Amino acid sequence: QVQLVESGGGSVQIGGSLRLSCVTSGSIDNAYCMGWFRQTPGKEREGVAHLYTTLDLKYYADSVKGRFTISQDRAKETLYLQMDNVKPEDTAIYYCAAVRAQYGDIVSGRGCPKHEYSHWGRGTQVTVSS
After folding, report:
1. How would you classify the pairing of strands 2-7 and 57-60?
2. DSSP string over 77-119
3. Tell me, what's the pLDDT at 29?
4. pLDDT grade, residue 60 (50/70/90)?
5. Residue 16's pLDDT band (boundaries 50, 70, 90)?
6. Residue 53: is its pLDDT beyond 90?
7. What distance in Å separates the CA atoms of residue 27 and residue 60, rounded to the nearest whole number?
């Protein structure tokens, strides 16, 4: 059983920075896709960034490329999302998610953004203000 707990959300001014954390627990020794998603009322959930744990392979949505960075600390069992140069459009509830993924799928082209995530945290609010 994988448990995910997000933290680090809050209010930040346009152009500022914020770092989100996702602490994992349970069985996470296998290869996983880890992801950050965001949700705004009335809009579809968006996959912001993904990371394949064993290869440290990273994927980003076009909307955040060059501004956000996903990373992991395996020793601390923690996933991070560094958010830089934030925009009002970044305001959302951010969720950490995970799903077991096979190495063969990843290297053959079926990357983490194409996987259906099965484990979810409860979310942390990020608000970008002017």
Report:
1. unpaired
2. TEEEEEE-S--GGG-EEEEEEEEE--HHHHHTT--GGGSPP-E
3. 64
4. very high
5. very high
6. yes
7. 26
Backbone angles phi, psi at 73, to 5 degrees: -125, 100
Within 13 Å and on the Cβ side, how many CA atoms surround 33? 26
The Cα-based distances of 73 to 53, 93, 125 in angstroms read: 10, 23, 22
The tokens describing 6, both together, are: 């997000």
Q: 66-92, pLDDT tens digit by residue? A: 999 999 998 898 999 999 999 999 999
Between the alpha carbon of residue 111 and those of residues 12, 13, 35, 53, 125, the distances in Å are 31, 33, 12, 12, 27
| Amino acid code (one letter) for 104 | G
**Is the distance from CB of 125 to CB of 41 less than 8 angstroms?**
no
In Å, the largest CA–CA distance within the chain is 45
| Phi and psi based region of residue 38 (left: phi greater than 0; alpha: psi -120 to 50; beta: remaining) | beta
